[in-house]
Amino acid sequence: MKKNIIKAIEENKIIVIVRGVARENLIPLAKAMYDGGIRLIECTFDSTGTVSDEYTGENIRMLAEYFDGKITIGAGTVITEKQVEITKAAGGRFIISPNTNEAVIKKTRELGLVSIPGALTPTEVVAAHTFGADFVKVFPINYMGEKYIKDLKAPLTHIKMLAVGGVTAENIAGFLKSGAEGVGIGSGIVDKKMIEEGRFDEIEALAKSFTEKL
Fold first, then answer.
1. φ and ψ at residue 133, rounded to 5 degrees
2. pLDDT for 34-71, tens place per residue?
3. Helix axis angle, 53-66 relative to 81-90, nearest 10°?
4. Considering the domain boundaries, does residue 213 fall inside one?
5. Which helix (H) or strand (E) holds 132?
6. CA–CA distance, 107 with 87 (Å, rounded to integer)
7. pLDDT tens-digit map of 132-147
8. Distance CA 149, CA 143 (A)
9. What ranges in the chain are assigned the alpha helix state H?
10. Which of 11, 46, 84, 174 sits most deeply, having the most CB atoms within 10 A of its CB?
């Protein structure tokens, strides 16, 4: 199962980050993104404490069950071992973090999920890989640019990397050409105003503007 998820990430390349979207809009949003070619969705935990981890787990479960066999669902902003456990119980398949936390990575591996911790410097990237990361989320990449991935990859070709933070329809091809195995996309597809106004056809179009570049 884990190998299949890794393969799905490598083949589909785009993970869409869904943050702060009302539950009633999650399925219509995911449907629109699916129609636009998206096959991987990251449902984030709320680090502000406004939304409970359990509530986020219910969102992950709802999406994982509804889109079983169509979209692979994982969790984002995972900073505790408890959140890893909640994700596993809800049917999530991968764990994405903004940072590199050895305990979170080890719990992720223990539960058979795909580990994608965040890192920026070469030292952090290597540490994440050493702890057991399957991919390393290079974040925030918008301050570094496409060439940074190429520079990291030169000595670290054995480490799979995802570029996250500021990836657009205009630069996605450049990041992939630079050596990133995939990218994370947030507001470039998950447009809050469009969602609130029910303009899901436009969300589909945004998704296609990225997937057509693959």
1. -65, 140
2. 999 999 999 999 999 899 999 999 999 999 999 999 99
3. 30
4. no
5. none
6. 11
7. 999 999 999 999 999 9
8. 12
9. 2-12, 23-35, 53-66, 81-90, 102-110, 122-131, 146-153, 172-177, 192-196, 200-211
10. 84
74 and 41 in contact (C-beta within 8 Å)? yes
pLDDT of residue 1: 86
Q: Can the peptide bond before residue 140 be classed as cis, meaning omega within 30 degrees of 0?
A: yes
> Beta strand 136-138 with 118-119: parallel, antiparallel or unpaired?
parallel
Quick check: is 214 in a domain? no
State the residue range of the domain holding 166. Answer: 2-208
Instruction: Decide if 12 is inside a domain.
Output: yes
| Prediction pTM value | 0.98
CA distance 66 to 47: 26
**Domain total in the chain:** 1
Are the CB atoms for 76 and 56 separated by under 8 Å? no
Phi-psi region at 191: left, alpha or beta (left = phi > 0; alpha = psi -120 to 50): beta
Six token digits for residue 134: 């399957």
Q: Would you say residue 190 has pLDDT above 90?
A: yes
DSSP 3-57: HHHHHHHHHH-EEEEE-S--HHHHHHHHHHHHHTT--EEEEE--TTSSS-HHHHH
Is 110 within the bounds of a domain? yes
8 A C-beta contact, residue 211 and residue 35 = no
